[in-house]
Design a protein that fits this description.
mainly beta, 4-stranded antiparallel β-sheet, two-stranded antiparallel sheet, 34% strand, elongated
């Protein structure tokens, strides 16, 4: 009898996990705006780098404790591209653990019910997203959104980088 109770309690369980890690995406820095005469689109000139200035500032006053240093850049002479290389300034990386626990219950031959509990961002790790790239803005170089608000492809609670969230599901298999 003990073996049957143990089997009923512990058989049919499964765990699904997903670890997501990535480095920061490049931040496309923007200098002075100008209007393209052919299309009327607003485009941006590049920036110059300032020698001996640190690229990043660190401190608890910045979202994610890091910001791009505005003093590390200057505007080039009008109409020039600037000497700052493309894609050399990086945003924040992301880390997230998603975990699901499931159990299958056999109801009848060819008929089963699956219960599933899923947790997104299990450790509730903050993931910072969009960084203001426009030189001269008050928040230049600082993250202004969390990652889940920056990607905007699905509901933010299921998006990578969102706060911890959970969902429960029942699925009938036949």
């Amino acid at each position: 009898m003990g073996q049957g109770i143990r089997a009923a309690a512990f058989n049919g369980w499964g765990i699904d996990g997903r670890l997501m890690l990535r480095d920061g995406f490049p931040v496309p820095l923007q200098g002075s705006p100008y209007a393209d005469p052919a299309t009327g689109s607003i485009l941006y000139y590049g920036l110059n780098t300032v020698p001996d200035e640190p690229l990043y500032l660190y401190g608890s006053q910045y979202p994610g404790k890091r910001a791009i240093n505005p003093a590390a850049f200057s505007l080039p002479a009008s109409g020039l591209a600037g000497n700052a290389p493309r894609n050399f300034v990086r945003g924040f990386g992301a880390e997230q653990i998603n975990l699901a626990i499931r159990r299958d219950f056999t109801l009848h031959e060819g008929l089963s019910l699956q219960f599933r509990a899923e947790t997104f961002n299990l450790l509730n790790h903050p993931n910072f997203g969009y960084i203001d790239p426009t030189y001269g803005d008050a928040q230049f170089g600082q993250s202004t959104q969390m990652l889940n608000q920056s990607l905007a492809t699905v509901a933010s609670q299921y998006q990578q980088g969102g706060p911890r969230s959970m969902q429960f599901a029942l699925k009938l298999h036949f």
